[in-house]
Each structure stands twice: as C-alpha cells, then as structure tokens.
Amino acid sequence: MDLLQRKLTKAEWESIEVPVNIQEQRINELIKCGFHDVQLKKNYTMSLLRHLKISYTKAIDKYVYTNYLHSHILRIYAKYKLNELLLLKKSPTDTTTKVEDTNVVVLKKADIIRFTNTEKQITDHKEDMFEFVVLDLLESMLKMKNKKTDDDDKNINKKWLFYYYTLQIILKYNIELFNNQLRSVVLKLLTKLEPDVNIPKLLSMSYEIIERNDYLLKYADETLYDHQKQLFTLCKRPAPKLILYIAPTGTGKTLSPLGLSEQFKIIFVCAARHVGLALAKSAISSHKKVAFAFGCSAAEDIRLHYFAAKEYTKNKKSGGIGKVDNSVGDNVEIMICDIQSYLPAMLYMLAFNKKENIILYWDEPTITLDSNVQIPLHEIIKANWRQNLIPTIVLSSATLPRREEISDTISSFTSRFAGAEVHEIISYDCKKTIPMINKEGFVEMPHYLSADYTKILEIVEHTKKYKTLLRYIDLSEAVRFIMYINEKGLIKKRRYAIEQNFPTPDTITMLNIKNYYLELLGNLNAVDWQNDIYENMLESRIQKQLSNIHIVGKDAHTLTDGPTIFLAEDVDKIAKFYIQSANIPERILKEIMAAITFNTIINDKVSIMEKDFQDGTNKDEGKEKKKADAERMDPEMKRLMNKIEEMKAQIRTVMLDSVYVPNTKDHLYKYSSTMKTNNTTNTTSFAKPFACDISEYNVEQIMLIDDIEDHWKLLLLMGIGVFSSTHKSDRYTEIMKTLALEQKLFMIIASSDYIYGTNYQFCHGYISKDLEIMSQEKCIQSMGRIGRNKLQHDYSIRFRDNALIKKLFENDDNKPEVRNMKELFCF
Fold this sequence. Notes:
Blueprint: H1 10-15, H2 22-36, E1 41-42, H3 48-52, H4 58-79, H5 109-124, H6 130-146, H7 158-170, H8 180-193, H9 199-204, H10 206-211, H11 214-218, E2 222-223, H12 226-235, E3 241-246, H13 256-260, E4 265-269, H14 273-285, E5 290-293, E6 303-304, E7 312-314, E8 321-324, E9 334-337, H15 342-350, E10 358-363, H16 376-387, E11 392-396, H17 407-416, E12 421-426, E13 436-437, E14 443-444, H18 453-465, H19 475-487, H20 498-501, H21 510-521, H22 526-540, E15 564-567, H23 571-581, H24 586-616, H25 623-628, H26 635-649, H27 665-671, H28 696-703, H29 710-717, E16 720-723, H30 730-741, E17 747-750, E18 764-767, H31 776-783, E19 796-799, H32 802-808, H33 816-824
Parallel strand pairs: 3-11, 3-12, 4-9, 4-10, 5-9, 10-11, 13-19, 15-17, 15-18, 16-17, 18-19
Antiparallel strand pairs: 1-2, 5-6, 7-8, 13-14
C-alpha cells in the first residue's frame, strides 16, 4: 500500500477518468437516490409488460394472464394432476367470484393492436421475462415433487424443496410490472403445498438453497444497506455529531459519500491514496464535482477536476477547458485528500462553505494504528484531529474500536463542539459465506477451537459482540452442527429447537442460521460437550483441501471462480518461492531471460533516443502531434523517430508455455488430469478453476518497463502480479492495477498494508505465516478483501498459521489500534 503523502501522478489522473462499468454505475445511482429515500428499491429484472413497454392497468394485467400465461398454468396443472387447485375459492361454501377469473377481458382497440404487434417478442424472449422464469421454476418444483423416491419416511424428494424455497423468496422481490394474477396463483399453490414442507430437511439443504442458488441474487432487489440508511438519516439531523460507522468490508462504506454529497460538501480523507482514487473514479462517473488534495502543504496545491471548475480559460483549438483556476472552489462537492493535506483541504472548503454544511468523512482511520511505534504520520493525524473545525465527522471502518473503547476520543470531540451527539452504527451484513481454511486444509469453526466448554462460551460471546465474524462462519459446517445437536436430542430447552427458530420456510436465511448456530453453541450441556459433541464433530469433519500451499502446481485447481490474493510480510520471498515452485525447465528459463535481457537492452536504447527526441522537438507540441506532422518535421528528428520505431519493432514477444501457467488446460492436464471440470456436484472447489488472461499486448507493456527486476516480469507470464515496496515502478504498478481490476490475473501477492480500501474482487485469499503478529483488527481487514462481488462463488481464506484464526475469536484488551487512537484522536 502506498502511504506516501505525495501528489498524484499522470497515470493516477488518467485512471480516474476511466468510466466504471454499468453495474457499478447503477449502484452509484442507487446510493445517490437512496439518500433522498432510504427505503428505495430498484430491480432491473425484465417482466413481460416492462419488456413490451406497455403501461399497467388491472385490465391489461388480467389480459396478459388470460392470453399468455393461463395456458401454461393449465398445462402444468393437468400434467401433474393438480387441476382442482385452480379452483381456489375464498371458502368451501363461497360461490362468488373465483380468485382466478379467466373471463374474456375487453381492451381498447389500440391496446389490442399493440399486443398483436408484439406477440412475436413474447415468443422470442421468454427466457428474459420474469413470468416465464417463475413458470419454469413452478414446473420444475412439481416435476421433482412428483418423483417417487425413498429419500425419507414421508417420501419427499428434497430437490422439489429447492424450487419451493426459491419461489417463496423471489416472489417477494419488487419486480416492476410483474403479473399480479400469476403471482396470486403461484402463491396460493405454495400455500397448499406448505404442509408437505419438512423444515428440518429444508434447513439441512441451506448450502444448496441459499449459498448455491443463483436465482436469489440474480433477481434480487437493489437497496441500500441498513448501515447506509442509518448514516444518511443521522447526517440529516442538524447538530454537531461524531458517527462511528462500523460495517463489513465490501458493503459500500467507501461509496456512501456519494449519497451524502447530495446535500452536504464532503471532505474524504484516507491515508491510502488508492482508496480516494477509487471513490474519485465513481464520483466522476456519477458527474460529481471533485477536487484533490494530495501531498499539499497549502491550499494553493489543491487541484480541481474539470467538472468542478468554475473559472477557467478555453482551449482556442478544441473549445474545451484549458487552464483551470484551482483557487475557486465554489462548485466542489467532494474533496478527496490524504492525511497530510487535510488541514489545507479543510481551510479551502471552509472558504466557500459554512462548516455546518461540511462532513469530514475519515475512511479507515486505523490505518497505521496497528504499529507499536510512533511513525511520522501519527503526528499529522494528531494535528488534524486537534485543529479540525468541521463539526460533523464520520469515522468509517470495518474494525473501528467500539464506543466504550475510545471514550477519550469521544470526550475530546464533545468538549470541542457544543451540543454534539455521538452515534454508533454497527452492521454485520451476512449475505455470503467465506470459510476459513486452516493449514491442515480443514474448515475452521468456533466449535472446533476448544474442548473446554468454558472457552467455547467465551468464543460465542466474543463473536456476538463482533458479528462481522459471522461472515466467516461456514454455512455448511454451521448446519451440520445444528442438525447433529437436534438429531441427537442435545438441546437444553425447547426454545432452541429448529421448529421454534424457523417457523416458516422464508425464515431460513443465512443470517438467521448463523445466529441460531451461535445461540445453540452457547446453550449446551458442558458434560455433553466434553463427552460427545466436541470429539464427534472434530472426528467427522471432512478435509476441504489436501494441502493449500502448492498454488502454482497441484493445488492450483482449488482456486476457483476468480483471482486469489496472497498477503505476506516478505512479499519478495513468496514471489521467488512461486517462481521456483513452477519447476520451469532451465532451458525455457534461459530462453525467456535471454529475451527479457535483449528487450531490456532495446528499452535502454529507446529511452535514450526518446529523450533526445523530446529535447529536439518543440516542447509546446507533444510527440504525438509531431508524428502527425511528420512532413514538416526536422529531417534529423524524423530519422530519429523512425529509428525509435524500428528499435521498438525488435522487441521480442515473450510467452510462457501454457503448461506452466496455473489452471490453463495444459496445466490442469499435468497436475489434475482426473479432476472434474463441470459444475454437476456440490464439490465446487473442483468445478471452475480460474486462469489468468494475459494478452500479448499486456506482456509487451511489461517487457517495455525498464525499472523493475526480471523476476517480476517472469511472474506476470504465470499470471501473478506483485505489489511490493522493493520496486518503485509506477508503470508496473498501474498495469498491475488495471489487470487486477479487470480480473485478468491469477493471483496477486501483496503486503498486509495493501488491504485497506482495495476494491478488486478476489475469490480466495492466503494469509502467510509471517503475519502471525498481525493485530486482530488488521486480520479482519485482510479477510475483507475476499468475496466482494455480487455473485455467489466459491470463496475461501487460507491461513498458513492456525494461531491467527484462534486470535480472531479471543478477546483482546490491548489492541494497538485502540491504544493509538486514544493517544492520537484527543486534545
């Protein structure tokens, strides 16, 4: 992580201009609109009427059902002999209108013509329309339920329960213009089938029905997180306030300023520059007016983005913005700055705005606070806190110390601002499971951590207090524990039974299951724990990975669905280890290194000639301009330019044989030839191995870099990028960032300081054994890099030292972050 408080580079300026993708833009818009309506729900799923772009009326809704959907219902009911359920009346004696009235609907002639003209669309695009998705699920459910099996005493085939549960959940989604008649019919059928639902059986299927259920996420509503709703509501209250904003990583905390900026001016401060740049990119894509204060010693150093410019000169040739007057900041909505630049940024914003209209949003304030020694940045942090004039402060972090732990900080704030309020927002969103894998390859869980039940009770209480840990409780293992306790009759009180905690199918959610697991674990008989539960659960667990260190060899196939991050203190050591582990023959290494050496010589010559070319051309006109006007160029410069192009053309393409590139077809054949490569089983670790996508162009870019060592280039050929403090190559780092963002790298190796604010989407992570001294808070931050995308993939966090896992679940009364915060965030 780059903690240098310096000005932005040209590459960094260029990076923020790259628009975010459509999905990210939708999230940004949701946050902005959600500030004004925190209950806002958006759903982009296509319904039949929405696809046809026809307005809703009750008559049209009924017409659609009668003419396009009812025949499907009739066929399905007839096929599975359920026709009597079509006649769903209010009561057995009620002879009034049926709920499903299929009498002919009379529409206006214009509406009939519109439907006639669009009938082919309905036929051709059924798979895109939610009504037909529901019909397919309905038929699949009845087909599976109709099968006769010996699955259990009630002859229930559990597969039908998957579709039953899915329909129960997705029919509650806010699908715009979804056909109400169809919804009514399907819900009534589900109600009729409810007596056949075996809740314990359904709970035992939680992995399949929740974690591996693509329907639940694909069609889900997009809403603000609860912590964002609380934040927006609190900030609208007109009083000085300190908000301790605690929520899991990857749940939108860093984007929350987009919403706040709808009403307030924001000063976003963070020690890690890449965090601010990520926000800047989203803000600019959302047309927010942004300013930057990086490496500033005075307000004169602040720079405005073009959108924020109020006074500027125009470029005579292009007609666009020329030189910006950075001293005029009336338009600035979001000021993004590093720690060093906060005070100049604050004074700059106060020159144009009332302090009551400004929010200081301090992201990850505990960065560097895990250190037991004072560093230069600490003095700057102390000065910023003491000289701050902004009365509304948000301290945002997944691992921010709790209110009771930083009473001195709170007192210093309330004494500075009269009538100040202090609020604590604590969220523990839990929509996916990211299991912890110990060094032996087993999933680690709280109930495996001690044979002493007294210790287990302490672990349970700690986890309840820090519920962000729920994310790392494996759902399958939690359910296995729950089923064992219930089936063995080891429950102390009836209120802890499955049926009491999950009265209906829709109460079976990931969060409810994990909370129930904790309740159950904390309310057992100590004798039963000692004599039965602990040993049986420990002995019956199944090893998830045979090993977890041969990443570029026989273990590569366990890294599925997306990129992996390897966090270590000694990054260089890990990088060199994986070069050795690849077992690339000496002959191939020599050929590659010879090509790299040759390219290095060429690059050196090109660099010298390009400097001569720059010096020899008009400095007011760029090189690209000179190339365009080659006819008018000085002959000597023209010859030099041609020579440069000739030299660049000699660069040798360096590609590694795919057998040495993890998870390519040839690599898998060599190391895992008997491995399953489809997704037909639940052992998804062996289903979708993830490989890099490094193009020839990417390789050529790296080969042209002359300020990194050759082994970094070799690693790239294997799909491995490295973020290391041992090299200072901005070009290499920017290329790695781009490849990481586009998920083209197989793995990234980085130091633990890299963790804060990284928005790259990793599916697996390694925490090296040389990080055993890492603080509890920083470990949780490290784990937060995994599982940040919306999709429900296979995830894992693999520890090379089991002691660090145990540390996560132990109370720590001497956290360095708390100790330093008390020292620095006070007067």
